[in-house]
């Protein structure tokens, strides 16, 4: 007969490993954030360059999750310029300027890299 006896728990070790895991993921997302901003800036249609240079990212960490968001701070008269470039907009004389899908093709490779990296972490033991 084999008997195991254990005293105490592994809560401190578990807490340490969880914290280490989160730190690595924040570092990874920071890298992807910089790459995403560069991709969005290079894909943004350029007139003055203000919209292209206004991309930034935020990493938000909540209990049990972490996320990355991409934003553009060029807002003119309450209108986010990056969005009207993407989806189009009306003109003063009643015309329409067709939008150009530049955000999705620019950011999709970054999302694919994040997914691939996450899948690799999950499947490698």
Main structural class: alpha+beta
- Our estimate of the beta-strand percent is 15-25%
Radius of gyration: 22 Å
Whole-number count of domains: 1
User: What is the distance, rounded to the nearest whole angstrom, between the alpha carbons of the first and last residues?
Assistant: 31 Å
Count of beta strands: 6
Low-confidence stretches: none
Number of helices: 3
User: What shape does the CA trace take?
Assistant: elongated
User: What is the ordering of alpha helices and beta strands?
Assistant: HEEEEHEEH
- Arrangement of strands in the largest sheet: 1-2
Mean pLDDT: 85
Please tag this protein with its features.
alpha+beta, 125 residues, two-stranded antiparallel sheet, elongated
Description:
The protein is an alpha+beta fold and 125 residues long. The protein has one domain (11-123). The chain has helices at residues 11-43, 81-87, 103-123, and strands at 55-62, 65-72, 75-76, 79-80, 88-90, 96-98. A two-stranded antiparallel sheet has the order 1-2. Helix 1 (11-43) packs antiparallel against helix 3 (103-123). The longest helix has 33 residues, at 11-43.
A few lines on this structure:
This protein has helices at residues 11-43, 81-87, 103-123, and strands at residues 55-62, 65-72, 75-76, 79-80, 88-90, 96-98. The protein is an alpha+beta fold and 125 residues long.
